[in-house]
Amino acid sequence: MKFGLFGSAQARRGGSDIDSAQGFREFIDYNVEAEALGYASTFVVEHHFTGFGQVSASLNLLTWVAARTSTLRLGTAVLVLPWHNPVLLAEQAATIDLLSGGRLEFGVGRGYRHNEFASFCIPIEEAEERFEESLALIVKSWTCEQRFSHHGKYWHFENIVVEPPTRQKPHPPIWMAAGNPDSIRKVARRGAAARPVRLDRVDDRALQHLPG
Questions:
Q1: Burial per residue of 50-83, b for 16 or more beta-carbon CB atoms within 10 angstroms, e otherwise
Q2: Pick the CATH number of 4-210 from 3.40.50.170, 3.40.50.150, 3.20.20.30, 1.10.3720.10
Q3: Distance CA 208, CA 135 (A)
Q4: DSSP alpha helices (H): ranges in the chain?
Q5: What's the pLDDT tens digit per position in 128-184?
Q6: Considering the entire predicted model, what is its pTM?
Q7: Beta partners for residue 106, in sequence order
């Protein structure tokens, strides 16, 4: 049995007397100690506009964790795909996978907080379609050896080859958030191994692993 961490860090807002980076540094030290104790992985959330200084740039924070550790698996739980340019995200994720020696666990979801979608000016009703288009593009970006173009409903790219390549082949393990029976069925239809991972009790959401 392996144990891992799930959580977040906090960057407090304030004046010049507030060290906003302290919470991030403490989180990194916490992960370094966890690796020394034999923990296998750490998964980091993504949230925006909360006013509480929650992690908004998961891959940036995990890059620092990667630099301070050597065996800890580095997970996102989850990156909300409707909010991100999928090709830029594929590049950033591949970069941390390379730098970490192939330790990235790529957890993705469609999002559920109405206030975050409203702040991004993205209708939450588009979340599912945006998620599906983005995930397909990310996987293609990691696995296609030739230049390609994409003209979808939400994203358009012309004659691109995505760099750098990932360290893990054909790509990092993909995990998908599944918080209701319909989502779980969709993960199963993708061929998931039906292995739910309980990550604390955050919104009663689980992650389902998608095979490589």
A1: eeebbbeebbebbbebbeebeebbbbbbbbbbbb
A2: 3.20.20.30
A3: 15
A4: 22-36, 58-68, 86-99, 114-119, 127-143, 181-189
A5: 999 999 999 999 999 999 999 999 999 999 999 999 999 999 999 999 887 777 777
A6: 0.88
A7: 174
Lowest mean pLDDT among 38-42, 54-58, 208-212: 208-212
Amino acid at 151: H
- According to DSSP, residue 203 is labeled G
* 204 or 101, greater pLDDT: 101
Residues 6+ apart with CB under 8 A from 77: 6, 43, 44, 45, 107, 175, 177, 199, 207
